Amino acid sequence: ALLVEKVKALGIPSGPIYRTIKQSDTFEFEGKTYASKEYVTDAVAGPVVAILGDTVPCPNAAILATGVDVLVHEATFMQAEAKLARQYGHSTTVEAATLAKTAQVGRLIVTHISARYQGRDEAFVDEVRTVFPDSHVATDFFEFTVGD
């Protein structure tokens, strides 16, 4: 990870040079050469989140989601409206939950729920949890803590 405050203390503005500092042994700024190792640290592991917006099930979604701590996935429609979901380029509750299960994610948060399900929140979340029990449905002002 880049030690941003230390880099800024040299007068280096944010920009492409930050990548050079992280990826090279040395970098040059205003005619002076610096050792990059003095301005970076080892990567710090943290929680991994994958966010899938408007999408239909596809192989790349599985690649992105594999093993993440939290998957945020749109599930605009319940499974009964799968044909409609396909028509509009969306996923269903079961498709999002199946991906979460297959990709072995930690938790699933479904979002982008069609207004047609207002007042049917319990049925909606039950359908998701039937396939992937550790699921949550995001609503306005929903908050979810990731990590510690």
Percent helix range: 25-40%
Overall mean pLDDT score? 94
Question: Order of strands side by side in the largest beta sheet?
Answer: 3-4-5-6
Q: Report the CATH C-level class of the largest domain.
A: Alpha Beta
CATH architecture field of the largest domain: 4-Layer Sandwich
Number of domains: 2
Q: Rg, please?
A: 21 Å
- The assigned structural class equals alpha/beta
* Name given to the CATH homologous superfamily of the largest domain: Ribonuclease Z/Hydroxyacylglutathione hydrolase-like
Strand % is 15-25%
Biggest pleated-sheet summary? 4 strands, parallel
Summarize the helix and strand pattern as letters. HHEEEHEHHEHE
What does this structure look like?
With 148 residues, the protein is an alpha/beta fold. The protein folds into two domains: 4-38, no CATH class; 49-137, Ribonuclease Z/Hydroxyacylglutathione hydrolase-like (Metallo-beta-lactamase, Chain A). Helices cover 32% and strands 17% of the residues. The protein contains six helices and six strands, in the order ααβββαβααβαβ. The chain has helices at residues 4-9, 17-23, 59-65, 82-88, 93-102, 121-131, and strands at residues 26-29, 32-35, 49-52, 70-74, 107-111, 135-137. Strands 3-4-5-6 form a four-stranded parallel beta sheet, covered by helices on one side. Helix 5 packs parallel to helix 6. The protein is elongated and about 65 Å long. 26% of the residues are buried.
